[in-house]
Amino acid sequence: MNKAQTLTRQLSDQCIVLSDLSKFYGDILGVNRISLQIEAGITGLVGPNGAGKSTLMNVIAGLIPPTRGSLEILGVRPTQTEKFFAQLGYCTQYDSFPVGINGYDFIRNTLLIHGYDRSTADTLTMQTLEQVSLLEAARRPVDAYSKGMRQRIKLAQAICHQPEVLVLDEPLNGLDPMARAQVIELFRDFANAGKIVLISSQILHEVDLISDRVVLLNSGYLVAEGDLSNIQSETGEPMKVFIRSTDANAIAAQVFGLEHVVEVQIHYDGEGLFIRTTDADAFFLAFNRQVIDRQWTIESMGPADETVEAVYQHLISETQVAT
Amino acid sequence: MSEMSAGKLTVPKLMPSPAVWRRQLLAIMRIEFIKALFSRRAFSCYALVVIPIVVMSVAAFEHGTDGRPAFESIENGRRIFGYLFSALFIGGVLFLGNAAVFTALFRGEMLDRSIHYYLLSPVRREILIMAKYLAGLACCLVLFGLCTIICFLLLYVPFGMDAFITDLGNGIVTEQLGLYLGIVLLGSMGYGAVFMATGLLFRNPLIPIIVVAGWEMLHFVLPPALKVFSIIYYIKGLLPIPLDEGPLAVIVAPPPLWVSIVGMCALSAATVAISVLILRRFELRYADE
Description:
The structure holds 2 protein chains of 2 kinds. Chain A has 12 helices and 13 strands. By secondary structure, chain A is α/β, with parallel strands linked by helices. Chain A has 2 domains: 3-232, Rossmann fold; 236-322, 2-Layer Sandwich (Alpha-Beta Plaits). In chain A, helix 4 (103-114) crosses helix 5 (118-131). Chain A is globular, with a radius of gyration of 23 Å. Chain B is mainly α. Chain B has one domain (23-281). Chain B is 69% helix and 0% strand. Chain B has helices at 18-38, 43-61, 74-111, 115-119, 125-154, 160-170, 172-201, 206-217, 224-227, 231-236, 257-280. In chain B, helix 3 (74-111) runs parallel beside helix 7 (172-201). At the A-B interface, helix 3, helix 4, helix 5 and helix 7 of A face helix 1 and helix 4 of B.
């Protein structure tokens, strides 16, 4: 193995690597020819119903084998059951539990099945239940839990063995705003500890807030992936910039003449403006020169629509036009 | 939510080792044993084991017009018990009870949508299969073994404790009860392995249960080469009473005891191994259930 191959191998040992992965249910397409490398940090998997999110999640979690292509998590294939599942935590979208079980036993049994001895399993169970704020409800049957509590006990089940990779299918469903914020903080802790967190959600603005990177799926195909601003510039979607300035009118008059500016709107208070540009880099370069030359006062400036939703809508509409 | 961060948990990394495998096996066995014995699905098994106990109780407490026990003599009683065990217990209670317990091991969890918790665990598939199988076996031994013991003891009710102590002294009780319990063990091993595999393979296990029942009922007309794939062929050879005459007669000679034991173990092991292969290729699709 040469140096480049060794380096590639080392990198793939720290990532989720999907190579030309497809999953078909008979004639029905689940996902098709997905090649991805998901690194440490939080990655959001985004797409509408039927985009293939859950199929991809289940393939990554080893619950369904791919029809074609391969999958490795930290260099381990799903067929290596013990190593694969020891480093993976999966919070499924299935809202079902072993009949009659209480929260404590649910987590403890999971740890015992992993192979922990009883005393370690007891300690870890308490710690995990505390982490998801379910200590008080630990002895109540899971069937009697509220939707939010059930979501949290599933999360506890996924994290109790402290996996290196956390795969979460719609993990924020049913959580109240406070619980959402706390769960998101927990994901951030995992990501900050150098772990891989993969989250699927239909709530785009939340994915936006949480994710370091996004993977956009539509109709089983990978539409785009990577850092959101990079996707935006690569896809050529007009970017909306908001500038707060007392010189708003003067700025509007000048920037409208720039080649890549397609739209300018003055804010209703007259002290701000929205600019839509097809080339953000070129715009910022030209704009900075003008600010220095004309001595404009700029209070703040930033993207006004750098959201997953905006990018996603743009990409979807492009796909629909193409077809 | 607690202030505790994810990094504060100190989880010892588990390396695959015989000690871990043993803990996993025992943990799954314990969970499955409790589930098999105390879940709602176990009620059908309880109903099944009550039937022979009721039948034996009626026979034990029944007296003729002359005041003599319905069994007439202890020898006759043991023969009647043998027929009852062969027809009602093996063909009905043991068969259906095993079907209920073992098909639920996987199919029941698929219906409850909880099998993914096992499939997401770092457990070798062979350990998962073995643990569930042994738990099912233990459950059947408890239920059907106890039922057999109770029914056998009821046989002595009309004849009193003296007859029981005499037979115990002669070794008849231990020998015959041992053989009946052996049948329960071997039958559960065989039927259990088959029904666990059908529970993994078929969405509706009722059809394969009917097919297996038909195969077992017709085993006496099967050629010898196929007869070895019949569970009843092995276990009826263990019956402590001759069944070479009457409506329940075994048409061909039963195999020797060692063939019954070795054959049943081999058949069960092969079927369990098939289950491991099925589980390794298993694809979870709850939407189909």
